[in-house]
């Protein structure tokens, strides 16, 4: 199966109008922001998460659309040019359109070129499924098996690796744990490898739930995890020893008081997805809620906080 990829480099101000239109004529649209825009836009952390860090446009944005091999690509390109020509887009003359054909198999193999086993912490090692046979691990290594073709949460983002370090240092087999915003399920898999068996993983996004289930199967922990869609801790009624959430600062902020309520005394709240600028506000709120700050890790502008219910 072949795909036509059409990549449109343009101003950020054109994003909404152009992507709205492209969504109506294609099989999928993805937006790549330059790093400068990403730094300003905290809200698209999830987008940032899904991108290959080496693949950001140097400026502005790149909107990428895909058409399957049966599409009339010249007709589609004409439709795009007509739309650009007849709508009030910024810097219209600078909009750059590039097309290429992608072989689905090549695409799969592209991933394999860039994704290799790597150590995230003292014991956790992320191993792609195709390297399991060859990987020479140490006796005490804990392998998190993931297939990056299945979207985000591969452990190479600083927020995930900092959370995994905190999971490794904190989780004990008797702990009851909830992982809010589980994504690929990576943090729950880490907790399971530390021996925890009373696990719950939630996400607001159905696709994440599907991906997490596949990864739980791959890591033989599916029977020990209750996996559900959910919005933060809003519908939770149980008590936990550890709450983990790697989302966004303002979303973490929304769940601090619920996290305090849902934790047992001495329980841990491991929170990440927080940019450095938002750290003090989150720490203040946690302290006001009754938490003691046990540890703060920082990496590449991101912060992870381990707070304990006093
Ligand atoms: C950055 S990913 C983290 C994935 C994984 N836990 C990790 O650390 O690699 C954030 C996840 O939070 C989910 N999310 C965002 N808002 C949420 C909400 N209100 N309730 C539950 N999950 C949410 C997103 O769908 C996404 O899967």
From TrEMBL:
Keywords carried by this UniProt record: Cytoplasm, Methyltransferase, Ribonucleoprotein, Ribosomal protein, S-adenosyl-L-methionine, Transferase
Domain of life the protein comes from: Bacteria
NCBIfam families: prmA
GO CC annotations on file: ribosome
EC number, UniProt record: 2.1.1.-
Compartment(s) of residence: Cytoplasm
Catalyses which reaction(s): L-lysyl-[protein] + 3 S-adenosyl-L-methionine = N(6),N(6),N(6)-trimethyl-L-lysyl-[protein] + 3 S-adenosyl-L-homocysteine + 3 H(+)
The gene coding this protein: prmA
Gene3D superfamilies xrefs: Vaccinia Virus protein VP39 (3.40.50.150)
Native species: Salinicoccus sesuvii
Function description: Methylates ribosomal protein L11.
Residues annotated to bind S-adenosyl-L-methionine: 160, 181, 203, 246
GO molecular function: methyltransferase activity
HAMAP family documented for this protein: Methyltr_PrmA (MF_00735)
One Pfam family from the record: PrmA
InterPro entries assigned to the protein according to its UniProt record, in alphabetical order: Ribosomal_L11_MeTrfase_PrmA, Ribosomal_PrmA_MeTrfase, SAM-dependent_MTases_sf
Name recorded for this polypeptide: Ribosomal protein L11 methyltransferase
Family: Belongs to the methyltransferase superfamily. PrmA family.
BP GO annotations: methylation
